[in-house]
């Protein structure tokens, strides 16, 4: 037994290394033997590994730092193109080959269930990846708990594993020499994995199932995996499952973050003053930005008047260069200085008085992307026409499936997120492109791809008191149908 001395917060801490259990020794021996053969096995099942890495690449943001537990030859870690990539594996033979294959990455031979071995890795990471590794751990809960040492509040842990229903098929494939031997491993469903994460202080934020046919099969497998495997009901039959989690929030923030309320406005002159007059001062540092969209009713002039009439408020007025709410949101958020960003539509059908609920939800850590929903409480009689209500309900169900997150109302204009996360959405916008004239889905899709914790805050939807709705049921409905197809392509069929 060796002893390692660490220092945390200027206090020495002695960590004793643990001897391997009989099972861990067996796992290490197996993969030491397999190390020279892994490339051959990977080539034999190239279609499966390519699809698996492609989805992991979707889950991991560009330029993220990544720690992989059970890295093997390091090929998956290298495929993710991390800004800093570190791999740990129990088998020294695997690590030796990984260093030869990927000399620009950092690799450690060690036991991820041993705090002393983990202590040799410095720093924190944006992503912690366990690809199949959870099946070989002696104590999954304790290991997941140990990995908090590498996490910040923004870290995401990704656990990928095979479906329990596929166990007989995988065992049969091993017996025929079609799959690399794995030895004895844990029998875990996605629900088991989520429970273990929860017990270890991680809050699951996403789960997904991929690959109904883990082979190309002359192109048929690719078509099935792209267009049929993601469908509701069928997807639970897939061989591969993924769970993404964040560190559970355990304490309130020590200081209240600042906030920017963005008010996109076009032909809303009669609502401009009420947007400020009715807005509670729900945090010590509150900024209001009007972004005016070339109105015909002197809305811009009214924004300037209100700014000057309320000198005790920090109000800015911007004039839109492009068209559409999406363009206004991007212009306003780029100019915002608040830690938290909020959208308040200038029609005020979402009451300004409800914004403190959104602030509380995000500042307390309950969520990282807060979406308003108008479809929980009864609404005012004229607030939403029947066809609009049906469309909103329908699209909410569709996007709940596409995003693997429960939504009751994707089209509510009030959306709240951290400025740091918005900056990440902007940095990764190339994946989706400039596709959204509404401004809602650019944020929703971006938040989903970043694996943010999405929660909804119900509000009481009010009648419009000035002006006319700028939503066209039919032309905008057609745009929404195009958005569904776009989302399927970018979020499911790849």
UniProtKB/TrEMBL annotation:
SUPFAM superfamilies from the UniProt entry: Nucleotide-diphospho-sugar transferases (SSF53448), S-adenosyl-L-methionine-dependent methyltransferases (SSF53335)
Keywords, sorted A to Z: Methyltransferase, Transferase
Compositional bias of kind Basic and acidic residues: 1-16
InterPro entries in the cross-refs: Glyco_trans_2-like, Nucleotide-diphossugar_trans, SAM-dependent_MTases_sf
Superkingdom of this protein's organism: Bacteria
Span list, region Disordered: 1-21
Gene Ontology molecular function, alphabetical: methyltransferase activity
Residues annotated as domain Glycosyltransferase 2-like: 260-389
CDD domains named in the record: AdoMet_MTases (cd02440), DPM_DPG-synthase_like (cd04179)
GO biological process: methylation
Protein name (Swiss-Prot/TrEMBL): SAM-dependent methyltransferase
Organism in which the protein naturally occurs: Azospirillum rugosum
């Amino acid at each position: 037994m060796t002893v390692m001395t660490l220092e945390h917060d200027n206090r020495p801490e002695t960590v004793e290394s643990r001897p391997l259990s009989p099972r861990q020794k067996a796992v290490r021996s197996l993969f030491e033997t397999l190390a020279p053969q892994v490339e051959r096995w990977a080539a034999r099942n190239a279609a499966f590994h390519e699809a698996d890495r492609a989805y992991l690449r979707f889950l991991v943001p560009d330029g993220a730092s990544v720690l992989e537990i059970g890295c093997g030859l390091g090929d998956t870690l290298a495929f993710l193109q991390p800004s800093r990539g570190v791999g740990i594996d129990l088998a020294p033979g695997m690590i030796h080959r990984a260093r030869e294959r990927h000399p620009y990455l950092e690799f450690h031979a060690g036991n991820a269930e041993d705090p002393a071995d983990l202590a040799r890795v410095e720093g924190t990471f944006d992503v912690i990846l366990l690809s199949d590794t959870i099946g070989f751990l002696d104590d999954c809960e304790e290991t997941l708990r140990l990995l908090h040492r590498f996490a910040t509040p923004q870290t995401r842990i990704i656990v990928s594993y095979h479906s329990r229903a596929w166990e007989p098929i995988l065992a049969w494939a091993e017996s025929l020499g079609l799959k690399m031997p794995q030895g004895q491993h844990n029998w875990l469903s996605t629900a088991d994995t989520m429970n273990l994460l929860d017990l270890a202080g991680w809050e699951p934020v996403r789960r997904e199932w991929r690959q109904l046919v883990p082979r190309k099969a002359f192109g048929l497998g690719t078509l099935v995996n792209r267009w049929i495997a993601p469908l509701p009901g069928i997807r639970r039959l897939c061989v591969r499952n993924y769970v993404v989690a964040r560190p559970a929030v355990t304490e309130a923030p020590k200081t209240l973050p600042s906030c920017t309320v963005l008010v996109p406005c076009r032909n809303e002159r009669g609502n401009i003053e009420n947007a400020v007059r009715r807005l509670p001062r729900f945090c010590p540092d509150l900024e209001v930005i009007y972004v005016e969209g070339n109105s015909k009713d002197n809305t811009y002039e009214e924004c300037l008047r209100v700014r000057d009439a309320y000198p005790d408020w920090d109000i800015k007025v911007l004039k839109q260069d492009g068209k559409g709410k999406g363009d206004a949101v991007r212009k306003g958020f780029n100019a915002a200085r608040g830690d938290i960003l909020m959208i308040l539509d200038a029609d005020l059908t979402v009451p300004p008085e409800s914004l403190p609920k959104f602030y509380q939800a995000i500042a307390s850590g309950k969520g990282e992307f807060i979406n308003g929903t108008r479809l929980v409480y009864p609404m005012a009689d004229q607030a939403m026409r029947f066809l609009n209500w049906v469309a909103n309900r329908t699209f909410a169900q569709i996007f709940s499936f596409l995003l693997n997150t429960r939504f009751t109302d994707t089209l509510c204009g009030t959306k709240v997120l951290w400025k740091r996360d918005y900056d990440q959405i902007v940095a990764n916008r190339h994946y989706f492109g400039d596709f959204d004239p509404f401004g809602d889905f650019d944020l929703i899709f971006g938040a989903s791809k970043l694996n943010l914790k999405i929660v909804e805050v119900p509000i009481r939807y009010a009648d419009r008191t000035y002006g006319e709705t700028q939503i066209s049921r039919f032309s905008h409905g057609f745009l929404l149908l195009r958005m569904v197809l776009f989302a399927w392509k970018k979020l499911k069929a790849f």
